[in-house]
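your task:
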Amino acid sequence: MLYSCHSYYSLKFGTAKVETLVGKAQELGITTLLLSDINNSTGCFDFVKECSERNIKPIVGVEVRSGDTWLYTCIAKNSEGFREINEFLSENNFSKREYPKRTPEFEHVYVIFPLSTVEIDLLEYEFIGIRPFELNLFFNRVPSKLKNKLVAFHQVTFCEPHEVELHKLLKAIDHNTLLSMINKGNVARNDEVFISPDSFNSLYSEYPELIKNSERII
């Protein structure tokens, strides 16, 4: 089960401290956690330290976005993969180019795409993340040849309910607009909160292959 977390290092988006995210995961009995802050990997070292102290397996990566649009999430298989991700980030940041719709051909990185990009031809290391709210949508949208490419994937942005309003305020600042002018497409979903492993398994109980594919990546 892939819990893909945003911390406050996701600037003008995330609200939670790294230690708060890891602590909440520990409370729920989550044993593997992915930190995938938006367009940066600054929090990864603190994250690995916190996870090690709480007996949680840390996985590091980055969620790449163009504006408010989630393009894909890169997950390092190992330290070499972490280097590949950071070189990719640095190249785009220094050149001030928009992030491409496809990554370069990584050797040590998994890439998770949103369901909206199901029409692309996936490479060996590329997968499609099916989030809980998409479980009733994906079945007829995904060709049968791609069924082994689907993974159970849950984005986590909030640890506590009050963080939702703080997040919306940050996005209003990001868009240089009034809080009342922010729409759903600009902000995270309210259900981007931690769910227990038992609840996760229950949600995906009719699609056990998605859980298995996630576990293969983990």
About this structure: The first strand starts at residue 2 and ends at 5. Helices lie at 18-27, 44-53, 79-95, 163-174, 197-203, 208-217. The beta strands are 2-5, 32-35, 57-66, 69-76, 109-113, 126-130, 150-156.
